[in-house]
Amino acid sequence: KIRTNSTHFITHKRRSKQHRVNNERPARESIAHLFFNTASMFKSSSSPPFARLRDDEDSTPTAPFSRGEEEDLHDLENDEAASAVFNYSPRPKTDRTFARVFLLITSACFLLGIVVVSNTNAKAFAQRTSEDVLFSTNCEAYRASSSSPTSRLLLSNKDEFKDTNDDLDDVFDGDDFWQSSHAWLLLAIVSAVALGVTFLYGFQYHASKATWGIIGFKLLSSFSFSLYMFAEGFVFGGCLFLLVTLILARVFYLWREEIALVNRLLQTAATALSDQKHTLTATMGINMFVSMFVFIPFIFFMSYAWMHGKIGANRFAMTHPSDGSKCIDRRSYDDYASSRDEGATGDMSAYVYEVNCCEWQTDSWVKPFVGLLFFSLLWTSSVAVCLRLFTIGGSTAQWYFAPSGTTAFKGTVKRSLSHGLKSQFGTICFGGLIMSIVDMVRNMFEKAQREHRNNAAMAALMCCVNLLWQCFAEIIGFISKFAIVYAAISGDAFCDSARKVTTILQNNMLSTFAVWWLPPMILRTTAFIVSVVFGVVFGLSSSNYFDDESRSVEVVFLGVFCFLISLTILNFCLTVLLDVVDAVYLCYAVDKDLQMLTKPEIHDVMDEVVKKQTKNAGGFNTNNNAFNIANPFAANNRNSNNNNSNSNEMSAMAGAPQQQQQQQQQQ
After folding, report:
1. Where does the pLDDT of residue 513 fall: very low under 50, low under 70, confident under 90, or very high at 90 and above?
2. Which residues pair with 329 in a beta bridge?
3. Which helix (H) or strand (E) holds 317?
4. Phi, psi of 321, rounded to the nearest 5 degrees
């Protein structure tokens, strides 16, 4: 068998099967087949999107398949999920340079970390940095320092230093807290997972009830806070929360049509997620693998790297004026002295606080090494996110473009994950690098804005620059996300995928910035509010299991930990659901670009979403003829007169090859 002929045969067979939407459009099918066969002949890099999805090779015959490749082709022929769009053929390796650089940096971090750990004496470090050594003026480095200032203000008898740094160990013991709370934390993890699964189940089978239940929970929470404020005597706070509740109720009432559309959108995503049984398993496995084999070892390496250094005098420490065995902060003492010179009276403890006389000063190589570890961690976390998007996007595309009537989707998640870890791992590393650089620049601007907050002119300038970069970063992140999903479908490299997916969205008048802001807003605010209530409930329920002396502090700590656990798990489950929404949106865009109608029920939902996008953006009128030609499968076209609808659709189909040729000439 020859790869080119076999692949085209399978493609033609599947396309013929998928294009029989009904028996009333034979002319459209013949024209569509002519268009697809013509598009598959283009081989140059400037060819339009999806012109080379099924065959990236030269027109010359290739060597016969090996035994393993023949088995893969046999499986492909018998695969009920094979479609005319998703690239099932063996994929070449893409963006290999970025994969090599990523693996090189990660391996170097591991090797250097092992060397650091093997040359670190943790016991000696603990002895040299004990509290008795660092906080005492007997520290050798502090005594040898000639820059140790002395007091220039003698304290009167009534001025006594009061240490405002309360020792938390007096009211909080970590070991006791763990012994008393580990069962509660385990219960919180199990409960949060069950809560996340319940959310997904509710959106799949009872989308309307789940969404309105979430909205009702938000209103009830806000109203409960207002009642609590009134009960505690805070009239202003109670009125404020009551006003917020009324405003939210009015807004949700006005948005009832949009919320109904959100129900349908999330139900579609939940159905796609449920048909692919192992999507959550794969994504959770990715996160657990990265946490266990990258994050924990790297944090371990960082902690050991900080143990390399020497004891030095604290440059901000000075000997206490009345107690020569302690040190206080020189800057705070200068402020107190200046206030006394100006005639101010006040307690010294309001200004001055105790500090350690000596400090640990790391070696010169520690900070660059830790910076390398941080960069590697950031890149690895971005790679994990891109791999999750790649897996979800590829499996969702196989579900979306599967032939009508397909009920078994075995192997879709495994196939996409295999592509992401093998042939297209370089593409995922490239996308993760871009996301990492965007995050690093964002953090730099935010840090500069904090540092110049006392300078009004610089603060305003940095605020504007940060705002512009935030917008730019959001656009880059969104296009990068769609490029990863497109690469999972087509097998293209990252830059090619980014260019083609932008072209597809723009040519079909779809948003290249966001799918729709309302579903993420509803889900993420819900995750936050539910997590707050979750933490409060667990904190109050566990109050009787702690000692009386430390009960208040330990209850707060447990509540915070339970809040973080619930927020992390709920955000993970809901983020997977939103990733499926993004993948379905891109599949819908590809459908429009190829003039296909794979899933009419999803087209109905997405057509309404597109109308909401253009209406909110103040864009073109969705009822004009231009939109009807660009979107021949829109709901208003299907519900209009059949003759006009068929005429518009046939015009669009007939003009498709001409548009493709014009795009090639422009490129």
Report:
1. low
2. 317
3. strand 317-319
4. -60, -35
Burial of residue 270 (CB within 10 Å: 0-12, 13-18, 19+) is buried
- The span from the CA of 198 to the CA of 215, in Å, is 16
CA torsion through residues 244, 249, 253, 257, sign: positive
Tell me what pLDDT residue 418 has: 94
Q: In one letter, which amino acid is 437?
A: I
Q: What are the backbone angles phi and psi of residue 223, rounded to the nearest 5°? A: -65, -35
Provide the 8-state DSSP code for 165. -
**Displacement of CA 419 from its chain's centroid (Å):** 21
At residue 611, the 3 state secondary structure works out as helix
Which of 443, 418, 378, 384 minimizes the C-alpha distance to 579?
384
Please give the full DSSP string across 260-294, using - where no structure is assigned: HHHHHHHHHHHHHHHHSTTHHHHHHHHHHHHIIII
Side-chain half-sphere CA neighbours of 443 within 13 A: 8
Angle formed at CA 602 by CA 601 and CA 608, multiple of 5 degrees: 100
Q: What's at 436, amino acid-wise?
A: S
| Amino acid (1-letter code) at residue 387 | L
β-partners of residue 318 are: 328
- pTM of the predicted model, to two decimals? 0.72
Length of the chain: 667
pLDDT in tens, 344-402: 666 666 667 778 888 888 999 999 999 999 999 999 999 999 999 999 999 999 999 98
How far apart are the C-alpha atoms of 85 and 587, rounded to whole Å?
9
Q: Two tokens at 123?
A: 């016991």
pLDDT digits (tens, 9 = 90+) for 75-134: 444 444 445 689 999 999 999 999 999 999 999 999 999 999 999 988 888 888 877 777
For residue 62, give Cα distances in angstroms to 65, 75, 492, 504, 529: 9, 20, 20, 31, 59
Whether 29 contacts 91, CB under 8 Å = no
DSSP 550: T
Backbone phi, then psi, for 355, in 5-degree steps?
-135, 170
| 3 state SS for 358-413 | EEEEECCCHHHHHHHHHHHHHHHHHHHHHHHHHHHHHHHHHHHCCCCCCCCCCCHH
For residue 130 the two structure tokens come to 């004990």
- Tens of pLDDT, residue by residue over 549-563, are 667 788 888 889 999
Distance separating alpha carbons of residues 290 and 304, to the nearest angstrom: 20
Residue from 91, 110, 92 nearest 102 by CA? 110
Tokens coding 28:
């459209």
How far the first Cα of the chain sits from its last, in Å, is 35
Residues 6+ apart with CB under 8 A from 303: none
Tokens of 376: 């590697």
CB atoms within 10 A of CB 243: 12
Residue 69 has pLDDT above 80, yes or no: no
- Answer for the pair 274, 204: CB distance below 8 angstroms, yes or no: yes
Phi, psi of 625 (to 5 degrees): -70, -30
